[in-house]
Amino acid sequence: MRIIQIIDSLDIGGAEKMAINYANSLAKSTEFSGIVATRKEGELKKNINEEVSYLFLNKNKTLDIKAVLHLKKYCKKNKVNCIQAHSSSFFIAFMVKLLLPKIKIIWHIHSVIFSNSSRNKKYLIQLFSLFFKGIITVNSELEEWAKNKLYCKNVIYLQNFIIENENYLKETILKGNNGNRVLYLANLRDPKNHLMLVEVVNAIHIDFPSWTFHLVGTDFMDVYSEAIKKKIEEYQLQNVIFLYGSKTDIENIIMQSDIGVITSNSEGLSVSLIEYGFYEKPVVVTNVGQTPFVVDHNVSGYVSEPQDIIAFSEYLSMLLKDENLRIKFGKVLLNTITENYTETVVINKYISWVSQFK
């Protein structure tokens, strides 16, 4: 197999991390592995292994003929026979297939935005699915949608996975006291519902004055991010909640933290959740996407309904005041991640699935 991953950007995000993970991992077991960023480079570029071929297209519009021809030339030169297109990059993969019909396309769906899109967009996705050889989804809900609504029936749910990095960077120093930090790894986008976390902190911080809360993720300097900052100021939580923006030394940041949280209104399968678990952090999360299949409520963490501030606050409070419970939950979640969400487990399933393609 000679395969490339295609992703819109290399900014820090779950889909971007997974595109790089696949490229890095497949470089160990395939004849050729590459990754193509179509629209934008970013901080994650430094995570691409030397064995992986890299191309940046600098695509600046939906139908960019120059970018399509550049990608076609790259595929032809490197004898690429399979394109794994992540999220919306399936369109440029389709354009290349029109020029190189023998290329196989695998569409990798990371978000429910495709299943929840407008009727016209759904019709377009259905049409494009005629040209897909296979579809990968990151949760069982998306798997059912793809099987029932798209024309390509070769659909598989594959877990997101983490690749251990023993030589991780150590750049960021989190504020607050060691042993008393709560972390939320998520870009500042509306579906991640950071505002809920601010409300939770406002409700409980008086009872836990030594604990601080750390929001790590890209700040797009938009209306949503301004609303978060305004709410923090309104509640006078500037010395309790800290925003760091985009960071690349995620392992280092997690190691400085004691609890991981996710307050999202929607998710596919959160890469942050897998990262929390891999580094043995207990979690409080919302019941979205594949999350409840990863976290066993009251066994490896707590799961509340989205936007349920009261329940989330109660669960988080129980973790804040009980170190033994934090240790217990962290160990159980680590076992879950080790058994189901590591490179070896997922890539073995992937290669077995892809090997059936004709």
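(the above was protein one; protein two follows)
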Amino acid sequence: MKKLFVLFMIFCVVACRQTNVYDWLQSTTWIDLSHEFDSTTAHWPTNMKFHHDTVFCGINDKGYFYASFRYGAEEHVGTHFDAPLHFNKGGESVEKVRVERLHGPAVIIDVTRESSKNRDYLVTVDDLKTWERLNGKIPEGAVILLYTGFGKFWNDHLKYTGTLKSGPEGVKELHFPGLDPIAAKWISEKRKINAIGLDTPSIDYGPSTDFQSHRVLCASGITIYENVANLDKVPTKGAYIIALPMKIKGGSGAPLRIIAII
């Protein structure tokens, strides 16, 4: 009887918690942090653009409507996920990143003022420590999102990236904010986070040629989200992030559907 009672109590606790989760989800606001993918989607100057072509769309020979399309792009186009493999030989590819690391409490680092004055602004350790002085220590398993304000330029490629050119010439003209490699090192050594992302094309700022922030973060197993949307709608703290990349076997990156739950 004692064992049955214990099992009954465990069942009651689990049932109550499950109900609470359902109730909580029904009362939350969900914010889509992914840009749409189409022919105008921002891409690295040396990368292939996203394309979406019609296979068939209309009434078929059997008399009913049918639609099917084909798409193609490089892994690192639009709102996307960087796996540790991206800049770390032997790092995890996309499908090897455990789902437990694809979510976490949001930490929004607002550097919009600094980025408006300097489009090559580098987010510093001081920016991270300022957030902690106001909000407490960055929690374990957090998803840090750098809010530069550049998301508002998404539909203006010149303002968003600094160039309209493609190929190596375009790479030379890239200008947008990113994360200081010193700050990347501080995060990887001093805090235990799941991921970091931002609303620009790269975690390394536009003029970077050695991609040190990528290299530091990937070597530490920290995943990266780039071209994130709608960070102006996410509070400084209190939101929860879920980021689900396409599960590409052996992939260094993948298109990403990322949401914030408030």
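Reviewer note on protein two: The chain has a mean pLDDT of 94.
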